[in-house]
UniProtKB/TrEMBL annotation:
PANTHER family the record matches: AMIDASE, TRANSAMIDASE
Stretches assigned to the Amidase domain: 94-510
Protein name per the record: Amidase domain-containing protein
Coiled-coil ranges (or none): none
InterPro entries: Amidase, Amidase_dom, AS_sf
GO molecular function list: catalytic activity
Length: 532
């Protein structure tokens, strides 16, 4: 449909040749006989845009009378912990009496908190300040949680290392100098160090599960859409997930009960349950903590990938075999398509990620954080030069793929659905599927240098996690023990076991994880090659 118009405003800036200039980079031209008409139509759409731009925005209203923000500040050197784990400190007190009363929470620094500047791990722009609260923030406060601040995330969430944030390095709580994982780096470190009880993280390729694995805590990426993404910075809307990190599955389950459910805004969560209708924590509390009748598959491709270190492979296999002692049946299973995960995710994320960064992502119903877009767009070369190489790479790769493979994004969506269907077929037979979360334990921090050198420490960390952002299946990492660091056998670092379930089957993977941690104390388990 064409734009309807009666007259063009006198100060309209569209001039002759503008329409031609817009399509010239595409190798397209306008017939001279049509040029004046397209100039008129372009001027009309400009006036239309000016009219909408002048209207007030419509965002959820933050109740700062009920939930005031106390002492919002950037932490100074004396207040910082674990390198630069905090982005901003403040206190918002929740309503007493809820299921999370007294629980301390941090939020990944991409989750909107009205009145709190958001850094997103970047210095491309100084910061931007939301005027609304993300849905998860409101729900946490209504459940009684106290929010103590935002925690550092990696540079625009484009890394699974913990040295890329423009605000500084986040240290692994178990060994300084080693990665805390990313991009929910600060939050995982704070939880593992017992400085907060729960962190809410975002996961678009492993950004909850990777830091949970490297830091030694429980991290859950729920089913796609289980938790509304309203008020959270997006990378690729098809891969966006938000979920909790904590020290136990019970805390994760209680938090998931609170934050789950369609909020009337985010179309990702249209298929979710009604808010407050789940009972994950109660199921764990009332359950037997055994697994009679459960069938658990050990994914061959997840264990035997060439990138998986032998110590990680052996320790996770040893931990998984303990499910038999809890009454479960375990079997080795195979799904070769699992190995397509990294490539499928890469194509999706590069194309949609580039569009998001360039302000070109469309087609969703939900909350659009217009203030953030106004702050970061348009890109300048000065800002691009300050960007971490991974962000530059997303833009370069995305533009290339859209130019050279114009049909490929759609094909990855189709193949991703095929892999999801194949996993769902397995979940008709198995209650959960298990594999290592990350192929290695925490590596030493990298350093910012040339692009390949800068990206090297993150390469391969998501071989078992990214596929479940593509398929949407719920996946949780639990710590199962320690193995030696790759470069120092005297330093013991946590290993994560990933437990994956069928779509909307969080209850089962929580039961599996809870049963394991109820019978085995992971902090007392150390694995070496010689012992295994």
């Amino acid at each position: 449909m064409s734009v309807l118009f009666t007259s063009i405003s006198e100060n309209n800036p569209v001039k002759s040749g503008d329409a031609e200039a817009l399509i010239q980079p595409l190798g397209l031209t306008i017939d001279p006989s049509e040029s004046n008409d397209f100039q008129t139509l372009l001027a009309a759409v400009h006036d239309c845009a000016e009219g909408i731009a002048a209207l007030p925005d419509y965002q959820p209203v933050s109740d700062q009378t009920k939930y005031p923000r106390e002492n919002v500040r950037r932490p100074d050197k004396d207040e910082q912990v674990l390198g630069q784990a905090w982005a901003h400190r403040f206190l918002i007190r929740g309503t007493p009496g809820g299921v999370l009363t007294g629980k301390s929470v941090s939020l990944k620094d991409v989750i909107a908190v009205a009145g709190v500047p958001q850094l997103m791990g970047s210095d491309i722009i100084p910061s931007w300040t939301p005027t609304t609260d993300a849905t998860v923030v409101t729900r946490l406060l209504e459940a009684g949680a106290n929010i103590h601040g935002t925690s550092t995330c990696e540079n625009l969430c484009h890394s699974t290392s913990s040295y890329t944030s423009a605000q500084g390095v986040v240290e692994n709580p178990h060994a300084a100098g080693y990665s805390a994982g990313g991009s929910t780096s600060g939050g995982a470190a704070l939880v593992s160090a017992k400085l907060v009880d729960i962190t809410i993280g975002g996961d678009q390729g492993g950004s909850i599960r990777v830091p949970a694995s490297l830091c030694g805590c429980v991290g859950l990426k729920p089913t796609y859409g289980r938790v509304p993404y309203t008020g959270i910075a997006s990378g690729d809307a098809m891969n966006d997930h938000v979920g909790p990190l904590a020290r136990t599955t019970m805390e994760v389950a209680a938090c998931l009960d609170v934050i789950s459910g369609y909020d009337g805004i985010d179309d990702r969560s249209l298929g979710s349950s009604n808010p407050g209708s789940t009972s994950f924590a109660n199921t764990l509390e009332q359950g037997s903590r055994r697994l009679e009748g459960f069938r658990i598959g050990l994914l061959k491709e997840g264990f035997e990938h060439g990138a998986v270190a032998s110590t990680v492979q052996q320790s996770v296999m040893t931990a998984a075999k303990k499910f038999e002692k809890l009454g479960a049946t375990i079997e080795e299973i195979s799904l070769p398509d699992h190995l397509h995960g990294p490539a499928l995710w890469t194509i999706q994320q590069r194309i949609a990620g580039a569009q998001t960064l360039l302000g070109q992502n469309t087609g969703r119903r939900g909350l659009c954080m217009t203030e953030m877009e106004q702050a970061r767009l348009p890109w300048t070369d000065e800002g691009f030069q300050r960007a971490f190489p991974s962000t530059k790479n997303v833009i370069i790769n995305g533009l290339y793929l859209m130019s050279q493979f114009p049909d490929l994004y759609g094909k990855t969506v189709n193949i991703g659905r095929q892999v999801s269907d194949k996993y769902q077929a397995l979940f008709e037979k198995y209650d959960a599927i298990v594999m290592p979360t990350t192929p290695v334990v925490a590596p030493r921090h990298g350093k910012r240098g040339l692009p390949v050198e800068s990206l090297q420490p993150s390469m391969g960390l998501t071989i078992n996690t990214a596929i479940f952002n593509v398929t949407g299946h719920p996946a949780m990492s639990i710590p199962i023990g320690f193995v030696p660091a790759k470069d120092d056998e005297e330093i013991m670092l946590p290993v994560g076991m990933q437990i994956v379930g069928g779509l909307w089957q969080e209850e089962k993977i929580l039961q599996v994880g809870h049963a394991w941690e109820s019978h085995y104390e992971w902090t007392k388990m150390q694995f070496t090659t010689e012992r295994n």
